[in-house]
Amino acid sequence: xxxxxxxxxxxxxxxxxxxxxxxxxxxxxxxxxxxxxxxxxxxxxxxxxxxxxxxxxxxxxxxxxxxxxxxxxxxxxxxxxxxxxxxxxxxxxxxxxxxxxxxxxxxxxxxxxxxxxxxxxxxxxxxxxxxxxxxxxxxxxxxxxxxxxxxxxxxxxxxxxxxxxxxxxxxxxxxxxxxxxxxxxxxxxxxxxxxxxxxxxxxxxxxxxxxxxxxxxxxxxxxxxxxxxxxxxxxxxxxxxxxxxxxxxxxxxxxxxxxxxxxxxxxxxxxxxxxxxxxxxxxxxxxxxxxxxxxxxxxxxxxxxxxxxxxxxxxxxxxxxxxxxxxxxxxxxxxxxxxxxxxxxxxxxxxxxxxxxxxxxx
Amino acid sequence: xxxxxxxxxxxxxxxxxxxxxxxxxxxxxxxxxxxxxxxxxxxxxxxxxxxxxxxxxxxxxxxxxxxxxxxxxxxxxxxxxxxxxxxxxxxxxxxxxxxxxxxxxxxxxxxxxxxxxxxxxxxxxxxxxxxxxxxxxxxxxxxxxxxxxxxxxxxxxxxxxxxxxxxxxxxxxxxxxxxxxxxxxxxxxxxxxxxxxxxxxxxxxxxxxxxxxxxxxxxxxxxxxxxxxxxxxxxxxxxxxxxxxxxxxxxxxxxxxxxxxxxxxxxxxxxxxxxxxxxxxxxxxxxxxxxxxxxxxxxxxxxxxxxxxxxxxxxxxxxxxxxxxxxxxxxxxxxxxxxxxxxxxxxxxxxxxxxxxxxxxx
Amino acid sequence: xxxxxxxxxxxxxxxxxxxxxxxxxxxxxxxxxxxxxxxxxxxxxxxxxxxxxxxxxxxxxxxxxxxxxxxxxxxxxxxxxxxxxxxxxxxxxxxxxxxxxxxxxxxxxxxxxxxxxxxxxxxxxxxxxxxxxxxxxxxxxxxxxxxxxxxxxxxxxxxxxxxxxxxxxxxxxxxxxxxxxxxxxxxxxxxxxxxxxxxxxxxxxxxxxxxxxxxxxxxxxxxxxxxxxxxxxxxxxxxxxxxxxxxxxxxxxxxxxxxxxxxxxxxxxxxxxxxxxxxxxxxxxxxxxxxxxxxxxxxxxxxxxxxxxxxxxxxxxxxxxxxxxxxxxxxxxxxxxxxxxxxxxxxxxxxxxxxxxxxxxx
Amino acid sequence: xxxxxxxxxxxxxxxxxxxxxxxxxxxxxxxxxxxxxxxxxxxxxxxxxxxxxxxxxxxxxxxxxxxxxxxxxxxxxxxxxxxxxxxxxxxxxxxxxxxxxxxxxxxxxxxxxxxxxxxxxxxxxxxxxxxxxxxxxxxxxxxxxxxxxxxxxxxxxxxxxxxxxxxxxxxxxxxxxxxxxxxxxxxxxxxxxxxxxxxxxxxxxxxxxxxxxxxxxxxxxxxxxxxxxxxxxxxxxxxxxxxxxxxxxxxxxxxxxxxxxxxxxxxxxxxxxxxxxxxxxxxxxxxxxxxxxxxxxxxxxxxxxxxxxxxxxxxxxxxxxxxxxxxxxxxxxxxxxxxxxxxxxxxxxxxxxxxxxxxxxx
Lengths: 362, 362, 362, 362
Ligand SMILES: Cc1cc2nc3c(=O)[nH]c(=O)nc-3n(C[C@H](O)[C@H](O)[C@H](O)COP(=O)(O)O)c2cc1C
Ligand SMILES: Cc1cc2nc3c(=O)[nH]c(=O)nc-3n(C[C@H](O)[C@H](O)[C@H](O)COP(=O)(O)O)c2cc1C
Ligand SMILES: Cc1cc2nc3c(=O)[nH]c(=O)nc-3n(C[C@H](O)[C@H](O)[C@H](O)COP(=O)(O)O)c2cc1C
Ligand SMILES: Cc1cc2nc3c(=O)[nH]c(=O)nc-3n(C[C@H](O)[C@H](O)[C@H](O)COP(=O)(O)O)c2cc1C
What we know:
homotetramer; 362 residues; alpha/beta; TIM Barrel; 8-stranded parallel beta barrel; two-stranded antiparallel sheet; 18 helices; disordered C terminus; binds flavin mononucleotide
């Protein structure tokens, strides 16, 4: 059972580090995006409808509670509060990686509480692509059953694997495993990064394998390189974490790349307000997910969490009002200004591989 | 009469806050615009003619005294001084929102003083688009009659409505009300933002509704988000003000967008010298309006206000001289350099909605 | 004689201010230009030939001693040293404005010393375009005769005129006067700015009037707005100087614009080393002129001035060596990288007046 | 023998200065290059193959030990350690300039130790292009024989020559000498800059002369202008070093230019981690060379040097893993984002000489 304990106690470490230390790195790019003001919006702010659909689910808001925790008894309370919020506001919610509980069913309680508290919510199970490959569809099924999930997110986090002491260093067979799951599984499969973003090329592979949606998990929010550096005891690993602090595709850049592949997307990574959700939707995302900004209030109290969510909704509504968006669909047609490094990266994207060609057009 | 009192005393609050506290936010973009020097201008600086026309009015200068105040007895003296300056220099002038006096005719004195002191000036009445919708053309007529105005500015300020405690949250019917006014009204209608700017799309709607001119009211000068944050007592509203401090289209960007719609424009929002007026005109504006830079001297004395206006004219004349512009019409043909964030925003404007398309051209 | 005394003593004031106070403003753009390194230059640094031709004169270096002073007895020593350097190194040299001596022939000594000490040098007489207009070709002839000059520079400095107490505010008739001079004069006429640069449009007018060369006098070096602000006693003039501190076309931008007009050019304004001369030549200038960097050593001693000139030549030679330029003509074929604000301004230049058109191409 | 001693003791000075003082200047551009993350890399990090080929040699890594030292007895120990590392990790290695030992065979020991300690490594002899020209192919042959080298690097360092007291100021005949060598020599010839980079034009000349590869030696790493300034005793030379501190083509820019010429390249100059090697390869380099980052540990101990090399490999492997590159060849097909000044310089490259044409396209 040593391995279980390791997986499980790591979960507790993560929450503590995230609560107490600065775990963000880089810039997701939202400061480089501006929504175009609509001076005569012809809509009623109080009538703005945040309802939206995602993979057949009907949600009351495009705010998605991103996958965070579960797997250690100490995380149960946090998951309970997140679940109650998901139920109260009818939000989609992802649970954290269920690996610990799949390895050791005694740890399921911190996951099952989620469905207990959120009987009607759209829930996403969560499994690492490495575990999927190693344990097969059966684990995916058990993960979904554990919380009666409507969908499953297969997370990819190879930067973290590469730099953490317990990391798995091989991704061989992952894409094949994903394809297998997508073909045979009863629920829609979402592929989700956890802080390094998804490129245009990878998005094409993911949709090609049959996934129904992509969760960006872009660079510029919570940084696993930073968290692993804080956890690292071996100096080479601390140093690796440091060196890869700036690795990844910023959320906005990734979102623009993934959008070109055409499928549904959840923007996560560095969204810090309802305005960032509005910007994400204007750039083509279907939902805007947040982890860290919800984690802290969820560790404090139900009231703190509700206040945070309502604040996010308040900002989102004002942004929708001022862009004349009565619905989420309207918001997705809003024009944006894109500037700065984000624009340079997006414009750097579109040429062939050869850098001379790319920049000179011959 | 509770409501009247609220509207009226808010006016006094605003002046006080603007006088004592820093109420500007962001960057209107004038630092990113440079006028092209004309080394052999072939004109006489002392013969430069600042005269211009705006909506059939003959003005002695393109400096416009932007709408500021009225509605509370304490604002009368300020309006008197502004009006005397408008008369002396034959400037166009807008009064502040007349709502308080329309709600409570006892408060008319702080508006009627303007026409008394400026019998020949081009005056713009001022009414919020919400009040227009709610009270109809009759209020617009009363507003114009109150000061025997040559035109009426219908202001839009939905950011402020959204974040102020007394704010009206619905803009439904506003465009229709505007169209109705434009069709039936005897005087030209100007639509005016108050700090968030007008987009190309909105400009088309405004001219399409029959308005005769647009007053940009762009981002980068006096910030109502900032003023409302300073006034706010409820923490959520203070926090909303904070979050929307950076909302809006910078004046220069908005001006370039509105100019493409083709009608007459007043550039306001962050103009801080006669050189900024010159830049606005070179970018296509018809007048350059200022509020805050005139408010402070107007709260001090008639002499202070005259000195400020003459300083603005002195700078404007030098800028016209050094671009070889004998007249305002010449100035409007002067070439400019546009750089920096302003240029990026302008160049970000022109593609279709899809951000991938927008930036990649496919 | 009051007027003479004013003109003359102003000259002494200028030298003092330039010696003791920071009189530079802005950025000429040389930091945004990089010469392309030639790793295998195939030339001998010690054989590099700085000789060049300018308007039929044979010069031993493209370093030009820009117009500075004369007209007050205290300036005689400075002019003597500059002239001896011009003779020793066979450099072209411009004297300062000869107005004071034309108004009062007793003051000629500080100019005639130049030809006495530099019997073989290429000397440029110097007269303001306002004086040319007001006093006609006769003054130009007297100016040339005074120092037996090979050419005359007609300087334009309308920013300074506009903001100095004694300034002339009319430029009417200047272009006509210039055309008249160019038609009838025996010597080539150079038109020279003094810190605000020449635009493409103005360059076309100047060459169209018959001038043989343009001296850029661009923005980013010695700033007359700054000097006049330091001299100003009236607060409005000090304030005007302040407001126009950032007025003008940076030297590099102006050079690129003037080059498109096709004639010979001297780059002046903010050149601060031999590398800046090399960059100017690579961008198409024929000579690189310096005022302030030569003024300070010239006020100290002949040795200091020689050391400065030799340092400039040393840098220029190394830059030529490392770009593989055996001659000044080779240097003018060297490729450059242009970046930053300078590039943005150059690229902002090329469209039609309408800013929407200019940036959007429709 | 005075000259030998000078050459030789200079070598010792260089090591000391590099060890104790900050000798880097500028920015090589790697911060402006980002590798595109591949979220599902489909490879096993532990199976990543760093093996590569360069000029028929089979190397175990694209890390190249750039030419540094030899020629003074005190440098022997450093060369021994570098050689042992080259042997242990099967890296390519260049020795420092062999001039001192060619001038004075008694000094050969610090070079011959390299082959003794690295009997199987790919070694590059090193000779200045000036020495090649002055002493002919015979010196090149002796240099190669001295260490039984597989190839010879002919270094060019004319910036250093221009600003160092002992510098040779003529490059006449160098290209011819290079052509002669390439035609007659039994081993492949590499041309190598030492800190100022190679332009597109020079690359074409070099490959045209018959060289088999180019070592970029770009700007932004160890700066010889800085080292020479620190060594300089004559104030004019210190001042020259200072003035040319910013001279040179940044490594990334140079690499993009040289790549367009088509031949094999070693990227050196400012590479500071395995990630920079990965970026260099993604931009088209064949090997990534480092000098300074290896010099310091090599001066300390064999262990320190091994730890440094393993750290570089660890970073390189993670970067390859996260771009899905199982081999060096894969890495060379990875897409990059290029932004900032580096992108501006690259995009500034491609037009004809005329700056107006270059930027305006007419
Ligand atoms: C404490 C914590 C635990 C997380 N655990 C998981 C996880 O188990 N599975 C997963 O897919 N993502 C996990 N994430 C990643 C988030 O879902 C999200 O993609 C990422 O944190 C970026 O969003 P943020 O910047 O709003 O935090 C976790 C994030 C945090 C902060
Ligand atoms: C104290 C104050 C009161 C204002 N009141 C009004 C108003 O009642 N109606 C209106 O249309 N604009 C009003 N404005 C907005 C101004 O007309 C102007 O559009 C805006 O302040 C931007 O210009 P500035 O940066 O020069 O201040 C007011 C501005 C100030 C500073
Ligand atoms: C003290 C001083 C006096 C000057 N006087 C004249 C002048 O009389 N006529 C003129 O054409 N330019 C005059 N100039 C301008 C210079 O010729 C030159 O165009 C300008 O200073 C920019 O070069 P710099 O940055 O190297 O100083 C003067 C400059 C200085 C510093
Ligand atoms: C101490 C030292 C000595 C060097 N000596 C030579 C040399 O003799 N021959 C040569 O071609 N390059 C020499 N170089 C240049 C390096 O090979 C390399 O091109 C340059 O230092 C840039 O790489 P870096 O930034 O990683 O140091 C030397 C560099 C250093 C630091």
